[in-house]
């Protein structure tokens, strides 16, 4: 059964079924609503359509597919005899059979089958497969996927072609452009209008006027009758050339349209493209015009090049997994989030494919789920993005920024898929492959244009030479010329007179050339000037010689072409997206503690929903919990609303993976009557819901003493033994300092504490951390702190230490060592803060005629941004050093260059003051440069603490505090009194 007897609904349902069954869920043409049918319904519907075919259910082929797609389709039947039922053979648009006769140059010889031939056999089984392939091929080649040569989809190509035909330098109504384009595009005005708006919003090929929508806010463009457009200068220069364009007939055969436009630029990479076809999709990201030109020049020179996306919405990208734009790669895109102040964040740029509205919606949802602590979101986006986030009091702005990237659309992943049409087939390429192909195509087009120009000049040279000979030799005055009886005799005579010159001509002389000479008017002959004719001929020959030179050096010509495009249009297309390396954000580390953890020890439940039970600590719904039991077992589970963990729980806390600073101090007994062991360990990684054991696993083992220390503290404990009359030396007290116990793995046995029976273990004094200062590194690639030895080592930090950050604009501030801190890109110095360190700076003071001033000062411990350069934005810092005895050299220039150089001892020149002090002027002469020299003096070693204590060391105040602290519950009691208390003996006599 042919397509002509199938209603459009049948075709839609076939497509929907194929989409569901064979295409693996990949969407078809989204502009058509597809209703899916079951297999039984499908066969029944086809049969019903076939039975009811006489009831004017015929659908013309061009109503389903345009004629230019017929090359992809198979005829569904043979020609049958003409039906005499005129009313029923008319199409839905009312035209009769005689109006359907196509011209000889039509695109297809398709002819519908006769539905009323009873002898015809129609096989339904093959139609499903065949028509699906035809439809899929059409969607891939003619709708969704761009062509590699011009980077355009058919609708875009037809829009640009229509605009070129309409172009007169003035703006045209979009409605008029859409109507004109419908001569070439068979799919209606809506699809044309949407494609035109998308082209206009890319701000490259189309110069727009009016309300064309806003890609930042998601606002739609105004109606086509209200907005106007025209081709941009870039499009007119790079996209069109009728002499190098290949043409084909339009879908109805009335017009000609380009097969591909002769684009002399990698337009596909500049604009990007996205489309969903049948069984495949294409997603090519836009790139920067300047980067494309630079990469094209590098490609032509045989150099290595890299090309990364650039989005009109700005933001930043991580290209570490971009995979050159090939399928399988991932591009991370982030919004630009800045700190307006300590309580307010502002989003200045949004990720590509997102708008301010969608971003605000995702933030609101995260706030509602408790992932963010933001009290108010204000969207003030207009021509630029500005979304202000007002934080809840006490909320860390750095951690909130990380949470925005983890839980909202402030960070998204884009999966590129560079699929293009090449040789009428879809191909998956890399961005580099597309660029190389486009560069070679541009070079071929430039060569074709030169060859066409050369041919035109040769034709002009040929005719000018003929004309010069014809007039100078006065051939038209010859007697045979004047007395010739026919045109053939004249042509033969002129040809004979040109015979001596034919060897110098670029081609043979034809009859048409001679007839053209005979059309020269007498007025032109009378005005003929030999000198001017010779000058014109020489000029043409020179231009031909120049073209011949260019044709031999096409690489140079192509490089000059891309350089010209960059110089002419590059300043209007600056890069907006910054390329960075993103750090990995662990959601559990940045999520706010939006829940409270409780434990019901009697019932054996823990969770966030036990509001009346014992409070443990704040947590988030992404955290894990580690649980220690009295019998030595422990495990890690996910936080839930309510979960049964059993009785005998000794300790519960939020578990942090890879936490090496939380140390557990434990004393346990091996078995019911075994010895006691003491151990220190940490738990860095563990399998969730798997049970582990602190003890050796002997039945009856139990934990006698347990503490969890978040910074590796080691306390002093007092052990009281059970009295034993058989013991020769009755001493029931012993002390043990955990600082003397090495930290080992969780499976370690530990050290033997005693074999005697212990009555109780008590804390005598709190200890200090045995882990020493925490080593901190700064990664300049991601601008973050870390503890994994990535980047610049900043030193060992205690809880009281801070980090000093100095920016290139003269601002400075201090921060803690939290790995969630965010730092600016313009960092000049970042190091451990030392309060008494003297800094030396040279500043050109704009408030004092720009003279150089030298100042020495101390940085203050301020978390707010302070500036030692001054309030005038025109002042600038040229040198900053922390040398104890710096030497400064000033080199004079300009009118004072004869003064040479001058050295200054900064320590002797000016004293150390506050950072707001103006300093002392160095000179009033013209300065060429200022630089620091090697110091001649160095500070003496005084043995003072440098702030980096070694492991196990402690300062004197801490040691004194520990010595003074005594938490012994038996303090002031004698050993006998304690024994009597344990044994229950009544002491009638007091000790003297």
TrEMBL record:
Gene Ontology, cellular component aspect: cytoplasm; DNA topoisomerase type II (double strand cut, ATP-hydrolyzing) complex
Record GO terms (molecular function): ATP binding; DNA binding; DNA topoisomerase type II (double strand cut, ATP-hydrolyzing) activity
GO biological process, one term: DNA topological change
InterPro entries registered for this protein in UniProt: Topo_IIA-like_dom_sf, Topo_IIA_A/C_ab, Topo_IIA_A_a_sf, Topo_IIA_dom_A, Type_II_DNA_Topoisomerases
UniProt region (Disordered), positions on chain: 73-110, 936-976
Catalytic reaction list: ATP-dependent breakage, passage and rejoining of double-stranded DNA
Gene3D superfamilies: 3.30.1360.40, Topoisomerase II, domain 5 (3.90.199.10), Topoisomerase, domain 3 (1.10.268.10)
Segments forming domain Topo IIA-type catalytic: 145-559
Biased composition (Basic and acidic residues): 91-110, 936-952
Active-site residues (renumbered): 226 (o-(5'-phospho-dna)-tyrosine intermediate)
Top-level taxon: Bacteria
Keywords: DNA-binding, Isomerase, Topoisomerase
Chloroplast among keywords: no
Record-stated family: Belongs to the type II topoisomerase GyrA/ParC subunit family.
Protein name (record): DNA gyrase/topoisomerase IV, A subunit
């Amino acid at each position: 059964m042919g397509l002509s007897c199938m209603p459009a609904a049948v075709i839609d349902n076939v497509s929907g079924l194929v989409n569901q069954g064979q295409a693996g869920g990949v969407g078809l043409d989204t502009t058509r609503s597809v209703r899916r049918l079951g297999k039984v319904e499908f066969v029944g519907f086809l049969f019903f359509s076939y039975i009811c075919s006489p009831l004017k259910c015929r659908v013309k082929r061009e109503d389903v597919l345009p004629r230019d797609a017929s090359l992809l389709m198979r005829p569904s039947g043979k020609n049958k005899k003409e039906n005499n039922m005129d009313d029923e053979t008319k199409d839905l648009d009312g035209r009769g059979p005689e109006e359907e006769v196509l011209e000889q140059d039509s695109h297809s010889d398709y002819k519908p089958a006769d539905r009323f031939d009873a002898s015809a056999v129609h096989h339904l089984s093959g139609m499903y497969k065949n028509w699906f392939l035809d439809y899929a091929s059409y969607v891939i080649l003619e709708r969704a996927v761009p062509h590699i040569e011009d980077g355009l989809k058919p609708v875009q190509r037809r829009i640009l072609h229509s605009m070129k035909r309409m172009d007169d330098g003035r703006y045209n109504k979009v409605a008029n452009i859409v109507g004109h384009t419908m001569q070439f595009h068979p799919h209606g005005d809506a699809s044309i209008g949407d494609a035109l708006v998308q082209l206009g919003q890319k701000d490259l090929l189309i110069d727009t006027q009016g309300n064309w929508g806003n890609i930042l806010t998601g606002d739609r463009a105004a109606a086509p009758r209200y907005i106007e457009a025209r081709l941009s200068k870039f499009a007119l220069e790079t996209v069109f050339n009728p002499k190098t364009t290949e043409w084909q007939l339009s879908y109805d055969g009335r017009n000609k349209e380009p097969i591909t436009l002769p684009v002399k630029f990698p337009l596909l990479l500049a604009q990007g493209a996205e489309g969903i076809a049948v069984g495949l999709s294409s997603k090519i990201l836009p790139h920067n015009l300047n980067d494309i030109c630079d990469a094209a020049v590098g490609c032509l020179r045989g150099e290595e090049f890299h090309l990364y996306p650039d989005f009109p919405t700005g933001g930043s990208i991580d290209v570490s997994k971009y995979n050159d734009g090939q399928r399988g790669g991932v591009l991370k895109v982030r919004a630009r989030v800045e700190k307006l102040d300590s309580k307010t964040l502002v989003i200045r740029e949004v990720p590509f494919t997102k708008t301010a509205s969608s971003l605000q919606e995702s933030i609101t949802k995260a706030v509602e789920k408790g992932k963010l602590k933001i009290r108010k979101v204000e969207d003030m986006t207009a021509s630029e993005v500005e979304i202000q986030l007002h934080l809840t009091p006490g909320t860390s702005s750095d951690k909130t920024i990380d949470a925005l990237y983890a839980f909202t659309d402030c960070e998204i992943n884009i999966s590129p898929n560079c699929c293009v049409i090449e040789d009428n087939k879809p191909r998956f390429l890399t961005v580099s492959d597309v660029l190389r192909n486009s560069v070679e195509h541009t070079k071929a087009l430039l060569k074709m244009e030169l060859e066409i120009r050369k041919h035109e000049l040769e034709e002009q040279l040929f005719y000018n030479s003929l004309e010069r000979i014809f007039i100078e030799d006065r051939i038209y005055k010859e007697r045979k010329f004047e007395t010739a009886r026919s045109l053939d005799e004249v042509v033969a005579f002129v040809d004979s007179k040109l015979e001596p010159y034919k060897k110098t001509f670029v081609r043979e002389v034809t009859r048409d050339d001679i007839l053209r000479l005979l059309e020269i008017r007498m007025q032109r002959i009378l005005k003929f000037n030999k000198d001017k004719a010779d000058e014109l001929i020489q000029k043409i020959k020179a231009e031909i010689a120049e073209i011949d030179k260019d044709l031999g050096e096409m690489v140079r010509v192509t490089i000059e072409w891309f350089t010209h495009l960059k110089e002419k249009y590059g300043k209007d297309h600056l890069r907006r997206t910054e390329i960075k390396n993103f750090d990995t954000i662990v959601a559990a580390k940045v999520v706010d503690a939006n829940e409270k953890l409780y434990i019901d020890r009697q019932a054996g439940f823990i969770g966030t929903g036990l509001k009346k039970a014992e409070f443990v600590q704040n947590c988030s719904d992404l955290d894990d919990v580690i649980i220690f039991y009295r019998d030595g077992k422990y495990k890690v589970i996910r936080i839930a609303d309510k979960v049964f963990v059993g009785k005998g729980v000794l300790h519960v806390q939020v578990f942090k993976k890879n936490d090496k600073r939380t140390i557990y101090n434990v004393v346990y007994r091996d078995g019911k009557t075994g010895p006691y062991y003491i151990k220190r360990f940490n738990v860095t990684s563990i399998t969730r819901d798997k049970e582990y054991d602190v003890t050796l696993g002997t039945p009856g083992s139990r934990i006698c003493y347990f503490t969890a220390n978040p910074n590796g503290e080691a306390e002093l404990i007092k052990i009281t033994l059970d009295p034993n009359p058989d013991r020769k030396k009755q001493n029931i007290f012993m002390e043990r300092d955990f600082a003397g116990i090495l930290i080992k793995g969780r499976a370690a046995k530990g050290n033997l504490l005693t074999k005697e029976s212990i009555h109780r273990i008590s804390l005598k004094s709190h200890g200090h951390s045995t882990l020493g200062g925490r080593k901190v590194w700064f990664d300049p690639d991601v601008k973050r702190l870390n503890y994994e030895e990535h980047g610049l080592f900043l030193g060992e930090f205690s809880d009281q230490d801070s980090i000093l950050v100095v920016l290139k604009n003269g601002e400075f501030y201090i921060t803690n060592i939290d790995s969630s801190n965010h730092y600016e890109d313009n960092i000049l110095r970042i190091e451990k803060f030392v309060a008494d360190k003297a800094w030396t700076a040279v500043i050109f003071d704009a408030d004092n005629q720009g003279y150089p001033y030298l100042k020495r000062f101390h940085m203050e411990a301020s978390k707010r941004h302070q500036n030692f350069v001054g309030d005038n934005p025109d002042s600038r810092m040229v040198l900053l050093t922390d040398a104890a005895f710096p030497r400064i050299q000033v080199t004079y220039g300009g009118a004072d260059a004869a003064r040479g150089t001058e050295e200054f001892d900064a320590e002797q020149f000016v004293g150390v003051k506050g950072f707001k002090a103006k300093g002392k002027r160095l000179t009033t002469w013209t300065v060429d440069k200022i630089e620091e020299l090697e110091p001649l003096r160095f500070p003496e070693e005084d043995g003072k603490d440098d702030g980096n204590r070694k492991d196990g060391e402690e300062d004197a105040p801490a040691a004194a505090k520990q010595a003074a602290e005594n938490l012994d519950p038996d303090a002031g009691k004698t050993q006998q009194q304690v024994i009597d208390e344990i044994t229950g003996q009544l002491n009638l006599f007091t000790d003297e």
